[in-house]
Structures are given as structure tokens and as C-alpha cells.
TrEMBL record:
Residues 10-57 form the DUF1508 domain. It comes from the Bacteria. InterPro entries: DUF1508, UPF0339_domain, YegP-like_sf. This is DUF1508 domain-containing protein.
């Protein structure tokens, strides 16, 4: 099994998701969403885009 998405309510009454690995480590946290439907849509967006995502390493850029 490849981890799971956990949906929770935040302090403002909105919804957030976290992507959690099998070992319990939180890998990513989504922004706050006003509705659960919007939160699930955010999860689906991550699912669609993450397999194709490239690494954009900007850590060496000068300020």
C-alpha cells in the first residue's frame, strides 16, 4: 500500500489534507479548503500531477 491521504478540519472550520506514508511520516500538507469537496478535488489534483512532477531545485539561486 502506498500511503494515504488524511482529511481533517482546521481551526477555521475548513478542511485540509495530509499525505502520510505507511510509516506514519507526513510527506505533504495541502492548503486550507472551504469545503470537503474542494479538499477532495485538491487531493485528486495531487494524484494527477505528482507522478509527472519534476524537481525544480532553486536552492542554489542567489538572492
Amino acid at each position: 500500500m502506498a500511503g494515504r491521504f488524511i482529511i481533517s478540519k482546521d481551526e477555521e472550520g475548513g478542511f485540509r489534507f495530509a499525505l502520510v506514508a505507511n510509516n506514519g511520516q507526513t510527506l505533504a500538507v495541502g492548503e486550507g479548503f472551504p469545503t470537503k469537496v474542494a479538499c477532495v478535488n485538491g487531493i485528486e489534483t495531487v494524484r494527477r500531477n505528482a507522478p509527472e512532477a519534476v524537481i525544480d531545485d532553486q536552492s542554489e539561486q542567489s538572492a
